[in-house]
Structure formats: structure tokens, C-alpha cells
Amino acid sequence: MERTFVMIKPDGLQRGLVGRIIQRIEAKGLKIVAMKMRTIPTDVAEEHYVEHVEKPFFKDLVGFITSGPSVPMVVEGKGAIFEVRKMNGATNPTKAQPGTIRGDFGLDLGRNVIHGSDSPESAAREIALHFDESELSIYTRIDEAWLYE
Ligand code: IDP
Ligand code: MG
């Protein structure tokens, strides 16, 4: 089953949104197979956002993402990568639709509450960067038969 890397950013945690965000992921039918709370070290943040290394906002982005605890997770399900991106909404919360996490909970481009991988390649890279294989739990959710054929 498809997997994606999702992370509630430090603003989401500080603002007490962790529970509501996890609730949306669970209610969608997506399965959380790994989750922890961790302040992301600078070298990991730089590697995570390596595609943006030349951008003017890179330093601020890394500074922000390492500024306090985040909640990284691995989420599994049919079309998980696309479904999470859709639930997260547009990168800029002022452009994100109501009903999306960023549209409902954010106001600032740099503080947009949540991250989701943008492709299968990014998902595999980000999962390996933030988790050891041993941290993933393989299990069947009791509602799975009611989610998919
Ligand atoms: P994404 O998170 O929707 O995939 P990306 O373009 O990959 O968006 O950018 C990564 C993160 O960098 C965004 O989530 C946002 O927090 C931040 N970011 C993107 N563009 C800007 C910008 O122009 N100024 C400041 N921060 C930005
Ligand atoms: Mg991105």
C-alpha cells in the first residue's frame, strides 16, 4: 500500500492542533504506521528541504522547522500521497481552500502547519530520512475491509 511522509510542523504543535490534524487523517481512512514527537536536528532539516537550498527563504525555513518539536509520521493508504496533499491544501494558507488543514488553520506561508510528500520518490526519501525501518508498525486496521475492495 502507498506510503507518504507527513509532519505536523512546530507551529501546529505549539498551537495545539495535533489532535485535530491526526483526527482528520484517521477519519479519512488513512493508516498511521509510524509517529513520534521530535525537534528536527538542523542537518536533517537541511536534507529534508534540500530541493529549496538555493531559495532565499531556505535559512528561515530550516530555522523555523528546527525551532521546536514537530510530529513526523508515516501514513499509509490508497493514494496516500495525493490524498494527504489534498487534505493539506495549497502551500500558502491564504490561498488554501476552507476544509483543508492549511485553509482552516493557517494564515502565513512560512507557518503552514503541516508537510506532506509530493511524489513517491520524495515519500521514500523522507521516510528513510526521518524513520528507521524498525519504527514502522505493520498492522491491519479493523475498518480496512470497509475502506477498499
Ligand atoms: P509544500 O510544503 O506545499 O510542498 P514547497 O514549495 O515544497 O511547499 O515549500 C516547502 C515549504 O517552504 C512550504 O511548506 C513553506 O512552509 C515554505 N515556503 C515555500 N515558499 C516559501 C516562500 O516563498 N517564503 C517562505 N517560505 C516558503
Ligand atoms: Mg514541497
Shape summary: globular
List the uncertain runs.
none
Element order: H for helix, E for strand: EHHEHHEHHEH
Number of helices: 7
Structural class: alpha+beta
Strand content: 5-15%
Question: How are strands sequenced across the largest beta sheet?
Answer: 2-3-1-4
Task: Count the E strands.
Answer: 4
Largest sheet: 4 strands, antiparallel
First and last CA, distance: 13 Å
Explain what this protein looks like in three dimensions.
The protein has a four-stranded antiparallel sheet with strand order 2-3-1-4. The chain has 149 residues and is an alpha+beta fold. It is built from seven helices and four strands; from the N terminus they run βααβααβααβα. Bound molecules: inosine-5'-diphosphate and magnesium ion. The site of inosine-5'-diphosphate has 8 residues, from loops.
Please outline what is shown here.
Major role in the synthesis of nucleoside triphosphates other than ATP. The ATP gamma phosphate is transferred to the NDP beta phosphate via a ping-pong mechanism, using a phosphorylated active-site intermediate. This protein has about 150 residues and is of the alpha+beta class.
Key words describing this protein structure:
single chain, 149 residues, alpha+beta, 38% helix, binds inosine-5'-diphosphate, magnesium, phosphoprotein, nucleotide metabolism
Which helices and strands appear, and what pairs or packs with what?
Elements: E1 3-8, H1 10-14, H2 18-28, E2 31-35, H3 42-48, H4 58-65, E3 71-76, H5 80-88, H6 101-105, E4 114-116, H7 120-130
Bound molecules: inosine-5'-diphosphate and magnesium ion.
Pfam families: NDK
Binding site for ATP: 9, 57, 85, 91, 102, 112
Cofactor: Mg(2+)
